[in-house]
Fold these 4 entries.
Entry 1:
Amino acid sequence: MRVLLVSTNQERSPDPVAPLGLCYVATATAAAGHDVRMLDLCFSTDVDAEIAAAIGAHRPQVIGLSLRNVDNCAHPVTVSYLPHYRRVVTACRQASTAPLVLGGSAFTTMPAFYLPALQVPYGVVGEGESAFVELLACLAAGGEPRAVGGVARWDATGGGVTVTPPAWLPSLDAVRVDRRWIDTRRYLERGGMANLQTKRGCHYKCTFCAYPVIEGRGMRMRAPEAIAAEVTSLLDDHGVDQFFIVDSVFNAPRGYAERVCAALRPLGRRIRWSCFLTPGNLSGELLDAMLSAGCQSVDFGTDAAAAATLRGFRKSFNVDDVREASALCRARGLPFCHSLIFGGEGETWETVAETIAVMDACRPTAVTAMCGVRVYPETPFALTLLARGEVSSVAALYEPYFYFAPAVREGLAETVARAGRVRGNWLLPGQRVNDEESLFALLRGRGLRGDLWRYVSRLRLGAALAPARARTSE
């Protein structure tokens, strides 16, 4: 079959992110014998025209649409991407009668919403390498994919949405990705880095996290040798020497990160990469191995630095772990960021103050602070809120829904904004306090690559000192 795969994402803040997941699906679909074309809309200035041109050139028999994000996950300036997705669907329908199939991480979090909202008959939930190929076989044979794992179907006559549970791949050994489907070099120039996946799934039990919904609860690892081969290809075939490891947590399960670093160590002088870490399960030996393998910065999914809120989030580490992880990074001169979510269960003004104080003591390169917990369907926190009657129905979570602990519901955003204003290393997505987008544009304009939070504090310090320098020179 002729298949057109469309990456619909156009969000480029703080960086444009290459559609790695759709590249995996495109590679598997082509390997199954289908004639595949891929359209990446990330940098498009005329979505309707580019969709029409791609459909006209390829004449697809099936069109797959990848939905990456539900919204920007920020409060109070929240942006839903549903209107954009509707525009993409409309443009496809105006140019073709081919059946549409939805997929991607956003779709997987709420298939029962997206199919009727966009009036699309089929979708793929979870991993698409096998499910999408099997769905294509059913469509080609004129059948209904009722027995295909990971397929959602919408009955427009009133039957609602039915979802077959995802068929998670038991192993990633046979999974391959071809970067020819996208302009990798353009992402490097516009975003500063490529992306790389070493594993899928997450076995942690953080209450609000959608990673287990999107990738499964069991961690499945790739062979470190295959990862090193992919990085070598990024270097030699695409000229890419900077990348972000997109795993939910790089330093889990225990021992695996060390094996990956050992495989990457021969390339360590040629590459620079970043990743997400948990403050628990971290040692100086692992950080040394990461540095030898080319690691240039790390982002801790800390979320809170007070005992009560960490318990509320069901985090696997404690405040001492946060302090120790920070000290390990500082001792090695490794730039590090703590990402926080204020307002979770158990949050009080005392825990807010404690988290801020711990951050000050940890002296991170940067802090990314969000207000309110974005609640997604099927997460443990969503089930808790539904059971307590604090959320009327799952449908209430389809639109951006943010939870605030009652004790800090009034005034939390203002309190966090004040903390951010007086700290030059804090970034506040959704608050528009420190104008991060202008800062990032300035930094990218200077040719900087990688995680831009590494430079924000120095840039703001330079801006603050500029008036003093001007006065001194007069």
Note: Confidence is low (pLDDT under 50) at residues 463-474.
Entry 2:
Amino acid sequence: MVAPRRRLRLCLKDLYHQDVVEMIERETRSFELWEIVDPDDPDFDAAYKTLWDAFGAHGEMERADVIKRFLRDDAYDPTPSGTYIRYFLIAARDRQGNICGVRDGSILVNPAYAPDLCVVYLSHLYMMPAARGTVLSYELRIAPVEVAMDYLLELHARGRVKLPAPEQPGKHFGMRIDLTAEMEYFSPDDPVSWQRILFYGRGGFDAVNPRHFPYLQPDFREPEEIRATGNRPLPFMVLVRRMGHERQATMPIEEARAIMRLLYDDFACHCEPEHLGNSLQRVLDRLAERATRKSFVELLPLPSGP
């Protein structure tokens, strides 16, 4: 009688660290990540069109003139509220120069809100079909952290912010780094919503409990169109990866409040005030009400598999 086969499962923790490095390099060597820092860059139109085609029809993508202005703005000149904003647009290309994926977002810092907090707002990500299922999507999820580190160091050098540990880049200069993203709620009829939740769950993200943080993404359509058809903010979850504090069950209310204000300072750069105020106050009021009873909001773990 032939004995049945037995499946072996490998534990990645058993790999020597150089094995892990070589695995990652082998998987990613066919891609290069480039930050587009000028709207006149030859890759700008293709990168922007990639995001617009994926998100524009749903009112979730800023207009092209807004993105171009973001790239031209002085990132070291704060907004009236004191928030420093550094927009980024990252394109991944293969060896033939074809765009395989695009990620954009903003680095947000305001010492008045939280002197040691940096929010890396992950706005949009789109992967071309040929690049899906590769680790490139993971690289585009964490690449903005490198942008944030360079930005923080330059803010410190210019005297705009004071880093707690400017000599320790390996510890993010002593700053709390929160990767933040918006996400549609799960819909049984939409497999993509499930795939996105799994993607961020595997990346160490949690959802801020919507009962404590009833977030709405602003309507990004043209102001004239909004006035003609009505303001249509979108109810989304806010996802957070608190780097170094992943999978903690709670987040201080002051941190949640700072995240909300930073995000809406970013939106205020291209949305009309009357289209933002109610949605912003909705969350701040809920947090203020909860603060009378608790000092934290709950973080709900996202699934990472079946």
Note: The chain has a mean pLDDT of 90.
Entry 3:
Amino acid sequence: QPESMLSDEFQKTTDTLLAGVVRQTPELRKEQLDRMIRSYGPPLTSYLVKTRGLSTDIAEELLQNFLLEKLIEPAPEKNIASQFLQRKETHPEIRFRNYLRCALKNYLYDLFRKQGHATVNLDDVGEQADDPELDGIDELQYDASWANSLLNQACVAVRAECHVKQQSAVWDIFYERLIRPIETGLPAASYEDLCSSGRFES
């Protein structure tokens, strides 16, 4: 599909998830919260480790506290997901992952305010999510962490579906031909090599 169509579909999914966090019953909201944390937690943790020089343990602890204070504990109509949806009504180009990143930065700056850090105005986050305090390396690391997290989630889902449908061979071929080369940088195994390994009949 054209990239614009894929982006639109992904954005609709994100908006539905955010709406669930804000407007659903407590039971359904918990399910949506869990899904959101699984989706956004890993890239944000990686972002803190790579751009702030934090250990993984400290990054995870800071992120957990941030999510508790800004997403989980506040009333649904006051949490960061609700704030984002309200902002998006007048700025439809805004992206939640960039909004969330800036909110996390503000949270860290509040913790270390004595060092003289300035906060980032969330109202200034637009389509490009320009943040004057982030250089190109930070942006690239954040995008790479985000893409890697999405890839991992997709692979887990595909592998689980293949297992449920008793199509493990489909996953094995997919992994050997597409995923392993991404992970290792080595050429994909040929079909002949896969058959000679004894794992496939033809």
Note: Confidence is low (pLDDT under 50) at residues 1-7, 124-132.
Entry 4:
Amino acid sequence: LAQLRDRLDEVRALDTPSFGRTDDGDVSIEGGLFEVFDAAWESPAMIAIVADQTGVAITDTDGDGIPDTAEQVEALVAVASETGVPFDAERSILTPDEVTTAVSFDGPVAATVFELGLVDSRAQESVAAAKDDLGPIAAAISDDLDGSFVQVTGGPFVREASLEGTNRALQVSLPVAVILCLIVATTFLRSIRYGLASIVPILMVVAWLYAFMELAGYAINLVTATIAAVSIGIGIDFAIHFIARYREELGRTGNRRSAVAATGEGTGVALLASAASSAVGFGILALAPMPLFAAYGLLTALMIVMALVATLVVLPSLLTLITSDRRAAQVAS
């Protein structure tokens, strides 16, 4: 326990700005087994209550704030878990719930929880910095307490780990999805050139979307991280519809400009109506009271508009580059 307290002093001395601090400037640490000890020494009655209920006298001969033996620790925590730590007949320093929150007790002390406050826990950089600072100390505590398991946990760290896992999955799944879309588009369009042309707008939409998020200050979280995957599904639909109609018009007229104009007037208008209805539907989420879902709705609506722009502006230019008026009949066949 003395080693554990020394490690906690290392945490208090951390100079990272990620943690909440006391008035003295030290990192604030609440809860845990030592809070029960401190409360017991402050209580005029607690030591007598423990002795009366368990027959164990609680002593601190070396003045380090820790009961002298493991038996005393067990007795003190057992009684505090049942009665709390009273200050007098009417007031308590710690309630039983506060004790059991700080110390999980089942015979010998099974676990103790120390709580630290994080500054700006919504920022992944802040959470990652705190984890980097606490991780080595937690590992050192595990080594000090042979056979014990010490872990940095809590809502912000769980979200950070989940987001990290999601990002890793997206880094694998997005290229796989793009490659599969390329294979499917190439197979059904019977042309590698048209297959590649259908993929370019998708890649541009993903780049535009995350560039906008960076400029506008939107953080990547478990919800917004999935928008890129959605953009692939929407973008490939728009592209294939436009390309299929373009090939029909090119085969009929034999002129690239005429084919692009006819495709824009026909399929382009249909895509515009489809995108508008979808964007409005998702845009309504921007009015949601929960910021997470509001951001998802706004960004998804924006992504649909970007996919439409890429299809109606970028894709026609690509199609005129990869085809020619002279080969129109061959391409259509």
Note: The chain has a mean pLDDT of 84.
